[in-house]
Amino acid sequence: DQQVKQNSPSLSVQEGRISILNCDYTNSMFDYFLWYKKYPAEGPTFLISISSIKDKNEDGRFTVFLNKSAKHLSLHIVPSQPGDSAVYFCAASMDTGRRALTFGSGTRLQVQP
Amino acid sequence: GAGVSQSPSNKVTEKGKDVELRCDPISGHTALYWYRQRLGQGLEFLIYFQGNSAPDKSGLPSDRFSAERTGESVSTLTIQRTQQEDSAVYLCASSYTTQTSHEQYFGPGTRLTVT
User: Fold this and answer.
1) Measured distance CA(A63)–CA(A19) in Å, rounded
2) Cross-chain Cβ contact B45/A99 below 8 Å
């Protein structure tokens, strides 16, 4: 049972345009959400996070939106750059216990020059 | 400062052999996690250490898998009698344990191939 789902395995956008990556979750106990970026042969790199008490968090070109009622979050990258081409993972954790991250299966973003 | 390091970066082993994977967390990080990523899939949680104790081993897929950690330092993940389905990238992550921090910092992973 996948508790965190990224239904789009890939996304292609033009340089300078907005990239929107989506993520859905089923476990209402999750209260913290994170996005990681992963290049080939490297470990995931933390990008941005959001607590369930917020609905938006912004850091430079990256903004994460959280819709708790829909159990949906999205990552917006604007403007997109060719260096953003990577696999993006959505992850969720709970505020209690071990805080292990539950990951989605990832979305491969390709930014075309 | 130094990030999380893992060794070896690649390991090819024959089915039935034992392997040991090593993780050096970021200094000062009390929490350490092992994850596994199979081809085309997301990361699966394996085990969590707080200091040198492992309060959650629920992700270990079988009793062939074990892990230990020395103090708040190095951890080793051991897979005995490897099977082909063990082939994956094994990732280690570390973090501070605070009420507000959930971010985990990952190493580059060990790619294990069981032939």
Assistant:
1) 11
2) no
